[in-house]
Design a protein that fits this description.
The protein is α/β, with parallel strands linked by helices. It has helices at residues 20-59, 112-117, and strands at 2-8, 11-17, 65-74, 80-84, 90-95, 99-108, 119-125, 128-134, 144-152, 156-164, 167-170, 173-182, 185-200, 203-209, 217-224, 227-233.
Length: 249
């Protein structure tokens, strides 16, 4: 510390001046430390907020992409109809027109290219219409296809199936084979003989009358590791004849 001393009569005056480094050490350095600490704290807070925002975005449901397929083809009453699907429900409704109206809605939460990889093929010849859902061989496209189809009331549902989804038939007067693996099967306000099979799902049939020669049957299998259990099998005929007994598989 620098200073000076002046002596006068009976009085001594001492003046002291702080060195230039004192201001830096005694005042500015604590302020700089405070600023550095505040900056570091702010950086950590911003990083935490950014991480929380990213986690929230990852957990938030992604918007679904959608593509609609519509086509109508002729089919005379008494013809046959078939449809195969993989992921998605299938609804078939009878109407008073000799045509098949096919509406399919493809949805995905992934890339739009997934929608393009799943194709819907319709083969229409006199007396028969077949619809097939074609997925890529590697199964890489995660696309749900929900079908809503209208067919002539008197039509043979040759084979209507899906792997993951419900199969629902309403207002059809004929016979049909209905299949699902992970989903319910419902036949409502219909007439005829239907064969329904599901692995993981329920079967509901509400028929106005039985008119078909083929038997009406319902089978529900529940899979367990290493084995398959036949939980319910119900075949019967319009005459009321019940062939055989029910036994677990």
């Amino acid at each position: 510390m620098g200073g000076s001393m002046n002596r006068t009569a009976n009085r001594t005056t001492i003046r002291a001046s702080a060195p230039e480094s004192y201001a830096a050490v005694g005042f500015h350095m604590p302020l700089r430390r405070m600023l550095r600490r505040a900056s570091a704290t702010c950086g950590l807070l911003c990083a935490a907020l950014a991480g929380a925002a990213l986690a929230a975005c990852a957990q938030a449901p992604q918007p679904q992409l959608r593509e609609v397929f519509d086509r109508t083809v002729p089919l005379a009453s008494g013809g046959s109809f078939a449809l195969e699907n993989v992921n998605g429900a299938v609804t078939v409704t009878g109407w008073d027109r000799e045509a098949v109206e096919i509406r399919a809605v493809k949805t995905t939460s992934h890339a739009a290219t997934d929608l393009l990889q799943v194709q819907i093929e319709v083969a229409a010849v006199p007396g028969r219409v077949a619809v097939d859902t074609v997925n890529p061989p590697d199964g890489g496209a995660e696309v749900n296809v929900a079908y809503s189809v209208r067919v002539p009331r008197r039509v043979l549902l040759q084979h209507v199936s899906t792997v993951n989804g419900t199969v629902r038939v309403t207002g059809v007067e004929s016979a049909g084979t209905l299949r699902s693996v992970n989903g319910d099967i419902e036949v409502l306000d219909s007439a005829g003989g239907f064969s329904a099979h599901t692995t993981n799902g329920n079967i509901q049939m509400e028929l106005a009358r039985l008119t078909a020669i083929a038997p009406l049957s319902a089978e529900r299998r529940q899979r367990h590791p290493g084995r398959a259990l036949l939980e319910r099998s119900l075949p019967f005929y319009p005459s009321g004849h019940f062939p055989g007994r029910l036994q677990p598989a």
